[in-house]
Amino acid sequence: MSTTPATLPASAPVNPKSRVILASLIGTTIEFYDFYVYATAAVLVFPYLFFPTGDPTTALLASFAVFGAAMVARPIGALFFGHFGDRNGRKATLVGALLTMGIATFLIGLLPTYAMIGWFAPLMLVILRLAQGFALGGEWSGAALVATENAPVGKRAWYGTFPQVGAPLGFIIANGLFLIIAFALPSDDPTRPSDAFLEWAWRIPFLFSAVMVIVGLWVRLRLVESEAFTKAVKAKKVEKLPLAAVFKSNWRELILGTFIMLATYVLFYLMTTFTLGYGRAATDAALPGLGFSYNTFILMMIGGVVFFGIFTLASGPWADRHGRRKTLIIVTLAIVIFGFLFVPLLGAGTAGVMIFLIVGFSLMGMTFGPMGALLPELFPTAVRYTGSAFAYNMSSILGAAVAPFIAIWLWTVGGGSPFWVGIYLSSMALITLVALILSRETRDLDLER
């Protein structure tokens, strides 16, 4: 990438609405697909193939530790891609992030296992996992900016939900593909994948990402720069060092944005990684869980994720009408209450578990949807990519990186009960609530500032 600001024509063309929606949606769908493929494999495959410690709990913790390591790389990716996104434009930066993610995911599908090359296998897995995190650090913010900077007046939150819908879509595609493979290669042991699955079939979802990346590149290469960025270039408002500028002038927004996202991230990864592990754990295991088969529980989770997608889209018009701050305060209060429902719902049989998944994923959609508009709105155009990306991804360290690990530890402390896991979620939601109370409404702010 060049280090000089992009040169734009006197009158930059406008992106058609359909192209804006598709480009912001398809990129994040691919990125979250890649991330979910790893998250599912972290529970289902990697403890057996890359961390064969002899202790199932230790192997699962090691796998989750590598999963969390990617979150550490995300703020670095946010700074890297944010710098070029604010200096050179959103389009080229988004293409670079997508390519990085796609190549890393594809290569994971080609990795030799621990049985083949020993400890080099988990080392290579860590490196590629860090590359995934690095790429995702720059992906989300760029996609959110493409959506919101090209949105019609009064519909920024609605347009901002389209990159957010990539999360539930990516989950459904990734886990749907794993589910098809699991049905095609059934296991005699419901708590363990089949031998064929562990030998070769687990690689298919990782290799399939190459097809999705090609489609995503075709869409994104047809984008033109947003009017907000075009005007910033013409007015010579492009910062030479966006990182220094955002820390100097917008440090308060960085802190608030980080903690506003905290409850979203904790809920996000508890509902996906921890819940998958807890749902499949045998009732008589060292860490007792619900004892569902993989196929059954994934189908239940996909049912819950449908509500994730529906409420993500529903949150946009609501936030445009009532404001981002008011909407998120109400939803965050509901998340606080939801944390206290872990034990009664997860202990109420299949119906209770299904209600738990529907409520949890619905809240996830309502809190995640408005973030596509709120975080970009916190920052002026010259540092918007860097600022929103850094806040979003710093929150990933405080929330997502440690959430699965802390959840398993609390699961252990609770003797197999998820009570303390729910209390952990409620505590993080209270921190987010304080950040929202201290923040201001961003609905009516001018994005061209």
UniProtKB/TrEMBL annotation:
<feature type="transmembrane region" description="Helical">
    <location>
        <begin position="353"/>
        <end position="378"/>
    </location>
</feature>
<dbReference type="Pfam" id="PF07690">
    <property type="entry name" value="MFS_1"/>
</dbReference>
<feature type="transmembrane region" description="Helical">
    <location>
        <begin position="292"/>
        <end position="315"/>
    </location>
</feature>
<feature type="transmembrane region" description="Helical">
    <location>
        <begin position="254"/>
        <end position="272"/>
    </location>
</feature>
<dbReference type="InterPro" id="IPR011701">
    <property type="entry name" value="MFS"/>
</dbReference>
<feature type="transmembrane region" description="Helical">
    <location>
        <begin position="59"/>
        <end position="81"/>
    </location>
</feature>
<keyword id="KW-1133">Transmembrane helix</keyword>
<comment type="similarity">
    <text>Belongs to the major facilitator superfamily. Metabolite:H+ Symporter (MHS) family (TC 2.A.1.6) family.</text>
</comment>
<dbReference type="GO" id="GO:0015293">
    <property type="term" value="F:symporter activity"/>
</dbReference>
<feature type="transmembrane region" description="Helical">
    <location>
        <begin position="419"/>
        <end position="439"/>
    </location>
</feature>
<feature type="domain" description="Major facilitator superfamily (MFS) profile">
    <location>
        <begin position="20"/>
        <end position="444"/>
    </location>
</feature>
<keyword id="KW-0812">Transmembrane</keyword>
<dbReference type="GO" id="GO:0005886">
    <property type="term" value="C:plasma membrane"/>
</dbReference>
<feature type="transmembrane region" description="Helical">
    <location>
        <begin position="200"/>
        <end position="221"/>
    </location>
</feature>
<feature type="transmembrane region" description="Helical">
    <location>
        <begin position="165"/>
        <end position="185"/>
    </location>
</feature>
<protein>
    <recommendedName>
        <fullName>Putative proline/betaine transporter</fullName>
    </recommendedName>
</protein>
<comment type="function">
    <text>May be a proton symporter involved in the uptake of osmolytes such as proline and glycine betaine.</text>
</comment>
<keyword id="KW-0769">Symport</keyword>
<dbReference type="InterPro" id="IPR036259">
    <property type="entry name" value="MFS_trans_sf"/>
</dbReference>
<feature type="transmembrane region" description="Helical">
    <location>
        <begin position="327"/>
        <end position="347"/>
    </location>
</feature>
<keyword id="KW-0813">Transport</keyword>
<feature type="transmembrane region" description="Helical">
    <location>
        <begin position="35"/>
        <end position="53"/>
    </location>
</feature>
<keyword id="KW-1003">Cell membrane</keyword>
<dbReference type="InterPro" id="IPR020846">
    <property type="entry name" value="MFS_dom"/>
</dbReference>
<keyword id="KW-0472">Membrane</keyword>
<feature type="transmembrane region" description="Helical">
    <location>
        <begin position="390"/>
        <end position="413"/>
    </location>
</feature>
